[in-house]
Structures are given as structure tokens and as C-alpha cells.
Design goal:
Helix 3 (83-92) runs parallel beside helix 4 (120-129) and helix 6 (178-185) packs parallel to helix 9 (225-235). An 8-stranded parallel sheet has the order 2-3-4-5-6-7-8-9. Strands 1-10-13 form a 3-stranded antiparallel sheet. Strands 11-12 form a two-stranded antiparallel sheet. 33% of the residues lie in helices and 18% in strands. The protein has helices at 22-30, 49-60, 83-92, 120-129, 149-164, 178-185, 197-201, 204-208, 225-235, 253-256, 271-281, 288-300, and strands at residues 3-7, 11-14, 35-38, 70-76, 95-100, 132-135, 170-172, 191-195, 242-244, 308-317, 322-324, 327-329, 337-342. The two termini are 17 Å apart. The protein is of the alpha/beta class. The structure holds N-carbamoyl-L-aspartate and zinc ion. Zinc ion is lined by residues 13, 15, 39, 247, 249.
Length: 344
């Protein structure tokens, strides 16, 4: 099989940033995706419907003329989010979820939620309106090892949240562990998960053996290889609960290559090809369409895209760098080769 034609995929977790960054990030998203869930961790964060509306307009100004790619907006939950904001978001028609960041967990999360117990009325409003809860599932307590943050979050918080709000639709974003995959696969249909290309292609050895590779540093951090294998199994299992979310998160080369480099990998230069590489290596290319193009819209209650994309088996080399914000970034897999290429 030398070509693969699949329904146009969507990206259910994307960081576009703002202003000048949109010149790079929006065309990169429109390159192959039909829709993208837009993360709200700007500075200041997108906490209100009106802010999401303005942000969406700024994004759409950069959409290429021949594209009908759609940004699906998300509200950033804080300790001060009111149930009324949730009702307004649900009525807006362009907001598709609310993002829970534990305060301090990752890039631009300082305004995140400090105590999940304070979110009762907000989660109830979300459950009532069918608004999705997108969770960065990590604890931030200093006594918990960074490699255990996701597994502890599931035990300390997620189990009780799904019990307390049985009809709330939850996406456990960018899962990185066997525990994350097991929890989602064994739970009700109201719980789904996204997986990034970096967590499928790499483990912490790739980041740390032989020297620190800052361009592989993202949060949740890469785990050991057994977790990588569990994620590959989950993604290629055909389960309808697991879908594509790149977490493509651009940072300039300078910001990553510093004594305190920031977290995030940019993967939108070759997003679908990076996933195709994983599915090809796992001999599961027949499962790529469900993961990339069907499970996500089904979970969000949206139609599948009408158009298709074509991938061709062809070895090609990823760029070493990409211009970004008047400077440059180093993309995921920079300089390496992939086996499948998007040709239309
Ligand atoms: C993201 C970013 O840079 O905005 N970074 C990351 O490592 N994934 C934030 C996030 O999704 O955690
Ligand atoms: Zn993210």
C-alpha cells in the first residue's frame, strides 16, 4: 500500500499563541486539519466568552484564502469562573469546551484552578449544558515526583470527579502513562483522551540519554518506554475513546535552549505524518483514520469532515528550523526522516 486516503483529520488540542505567532501557527494548522481545539493559555488567559470571540477573529484573519479550517474555542477555568459564563459559552456556538489547568502546572497556567473543590457550581453548569471539560491531568504538589504527577492526579482527583459528575464529558488531555490509558479505556463513554505525537514517538531516554534535549521537553513530561508502549497500544487499539491532539506548542529556540527552558513541542509542520509514522511502525495504518478523523468529532458531537486527505509512502526530511515570531523554532523531529508524506 503506497497511498492512504482518509477523512480530513482534526486536532483536539492546539496552542496557536497570538498576534505575530498566528502568521506561522494558523497556516500550519490549516495545512491538513479541518478543525482545531484552541487552547486558551494566553497571557492574560481567555477566561470570558467575549475574549474567546475576539481571539477567534484574530485567528481567522490568518486563515489561508483557500481553507475552511475552523478554530474551536475553549474557555480557561479559574477560581473565579462563574456558572453564568458557562451558560454564555454554551450558547455562543463557537466555544466547545473549558480547560482545567491546575495552577502552576505548565506554560501560562498561573491563573489556573487552585482547588478542584471550588469548581462545584461550574462543573454542574458544564454537565447541565453538555460543555466538555478538558483536563490537564497533573497534580502540582511539591511532594509528588514530576514523573508521577499524572498517575497521582487520577487517584486523587479524577476518580472522584467522574463519580460526582457522571454526565460530565471529560477529555483527559495529552495522556502520558499506562495509568492514564487504562483509566480512560476502562471508564464510561463520557471519558476520552488525546495523545500527542511526541508521547507516541519518544520516551524519557530520548530526552535525557547522552545529553539534555530541550526540544523534547513538554508537559506532562515524557515517561519511561513502558508508558510509551502503552500509549501506542491505546492509540492503535481502535478504541473510540482515544483521539488525536497534537498539543503543538511553539516556543522560540532561545526560550527552549536556556538554563530554564520552557515546556512545549511544535509539531504542526508535519502533524499527520508524525502520527502516520507511529501507526506505520505499529503495523496499524488501518486504525489511523478512526484516531485522527472519527473518534474526536464523535466525542465532541460534531460531524466528520467532508473532504479527505492523501498520504503517500515516501521518505522525506523534516526541516531543521522554522521561522517564528521574527525568530525561529526547532520543530519536533527536526532534520529526521519520515516514511509518509501529505500530498493532498
Ligand atoms: C504547553 C504550552 O507551551 O502552552 N506546553 C506543553 O509542554 N505542553 C502547555 C500545556 O499544554 O501544558
Ligand atoms: Zn497543551
Amino acid at each position: 500500500m503506497d497511498t492512504l486516503k482518509i477523512i480530513r483529520p482534526d486536532d483536539w488540542h492546539l496552542h496557536l499563541r497570538d498576534n505575530q505567532a498566528l502568521e506561522t501557527t494558523v497556516p500550519a494548522a490549516a495545512r491538513c486539519f479541518g478543525r482545531s481545539i484552541i487552547m486558551p493559555n494566553l497571557n492574560p488567559p481567555v477566561t470570558h466568552v467575549e475574549m474567546a470571540y475576539q481571539y477567534r477573529n484574530r485567528i481567522l484573519k490568518h486563515r489561508p484564502a483557500n481553507s475552511d479550517w475552523q478554530p474551536l474555542m475553549v474557555l480557561y477555568l479559574t477560581d473565579n469562573t462563574s456558572p453564568n459564563e458557562i451558560y454564555a459559552a454554551a450558547e455562543s456556538g463557537f466555544i466547545h469546551g473549558c480547560k482545567y489547568y491546575p495552577a502552576g502546572a505548565t506554560t501560562n497556567s498561573d491563573s489556573g484552578v487552585t482547588d478542584l473543590n471550588k469548581m462545584n457550581s461550574v462543573f454542574k453548569a458544564m454537565q447541565e449544558t453538555g460543555m466538555l471539560l478538558l483536563m490537564h491531568g497533573e497534580v502540582t504538589s511539591t511532594d509528588i515526583d514530576i514523573f508521577d504527577r499524572e498517575a497521582v492526579f487520577i487517584e486523587r482527583h479524577l476518580r472522584s470527579i467522574v463519580e460526582k459528575y457522571p454526565n460530565l464529558k471529560i477529555v483527559l488531555e495529552h495522556i502520558t502513562t499506562q495509568q492514564g490509558a487504562d483509566f480512560v479505556l476502562n471508564h464510561s463513554d463520557n471519558v476520552g483522551a488525546t495523545i500527542t505525537p511526541q508521547h507516541l514517538l519518544y520516551n524519557r531516554n530520548h530526552m535525557l540519554v547522552g545529553g539534555i534535549r530541550p526540544h523534547l521537553f513538554c508537559l506532562p513530561v515524557l515517561k519511561r518506554d513502558t508508558h510509551q508502549q502503552a500509549l501506542i497500544s491505546a492509540a492503535t487499539s481502535g478504541s473510540h475513546k482515544i483521539f488525536l491532539g497534537t498539543d503543538s506548542a511553539p516556543h522560540t529556540q532561545d526560550a527552549k535552549e536556556s538554563c530554564c527552558g520552557c515546556a512545549g513541542c511544535f509539531s504542526h509542520h508535519a502533524a499527520i505524518e508524525l502520527y502516520a509514522q507511529v501507526f506505520y511502525q505499529a503495523d496499524a495504518l488501518d486504525k489511523l483514520e478512526a484516531f485522527a478523523s472519527i473518534n474526536g468529532p464523535d466525542f465532541y458531537g460534531l460531524p466528520h469532515n467532508k473532504s479527505k486527505i492523501t498520504l503517500q509512502k515516501n521518505s522525506w526530511q523534516l526541516p531543521d528550523s522554522i521561522s517564528y515570531e521574527g525568530s525561529q523554532l526547532i520543530p519536533l523531529g527536526a532534520g529526521s526522516s519520515l516514511n509518509w508524506e501529505l500530498i493532498g
